[in-house]
Amino acid sequence: MQPSAQAHSPTAQLDLCAALDAAVKAAHAGAAILQSYAHHRADLVIDRKARNDLVSQADREAEAAVIQELRERTPKYGIVAEETGGKVDGVATWYIDPLDGTTNFLHGIPHYAVSIALIAHAGTRVDAGAPLSVDTPVVGVVYDPCREELFNAIYGVGAWLNGHRIACSRTQTLDDAVLATGFPFRDFSFAQQYMPTLHDAINTTRGVRRLGAAALDLAWTAAGRYDGYWEMGLAPWDVAAGTLIVREAGGVAEDMYGVDSWPIGGYVVSGNPSVAAALKAMIAPHLTKKPAA
Fold this sequence. Notes:
The chain is an alpha+beta fold. It has helices at residues 16-37, 57-73, 102-106, 191-204, 214-222, 236-248, 273-283, and strands at residues 46-50, 53-56, 78-81, 85-87, 92-100, 113-120, 136-144, 149-154, 158-161, 164-165, 178-181, 207-209, 228-231, 252-255, 268-271. The longest helix has 22 residues, at 16-37.
């Protein structure tokens, strides 16, 4: 099961509007760093963490800007970030990807984003109802600085793109669906599960797209640009914000194996309810044992 921090009290309550405001400001701060490097990427110092797993000074500086903003505004929340790590703590934890789509960014492909999500831990109250029984994404921000598109969502309230409410598509069948996905690129241990799903999708749907930024794949699914999206082998910060945005846009975003309350393990299936159900049915025969975290 997913890691969780014990809430300080069963009645601890979050101010989601204040948290969203903090996340939006942090996303803009991180994006400003990214865009300051956008026209001289060749000068960036790039480190290779593993095969096809790159990090640049842009990632690190953007993450530092995001963390500084969040720590100033929400000092009691935990932070888990891609480059600097962190820990689950308090009543809620921020999950931060300062540059989702690093390879795109480094190659000058204008498709990348800052992704920030707040995960409320079990026992925390986020509205007038009962405390949450499981860890749950409650604030999500995905900011695409190239298109100046800000996707955001609040648990139980809705999802928006640049202030306009968004909703998942109404496509009913895979035959009519355009799907997004991501290929194995760093960890190939799940390739035998993934490749048959891609084969089926290519032969079943209207089309499959792979643009290389999971947070934007989920955000675009929430906005109805894609009808569904699935991917394996991601990190929690890749999918945390997008999961909430899809859910608040009337869609489904789940752990592919049906184990965790949100796709913290990085095996995500999403879409409007009809397409998500059909996509899960298409994927299920190819799934074996969930890889260890």
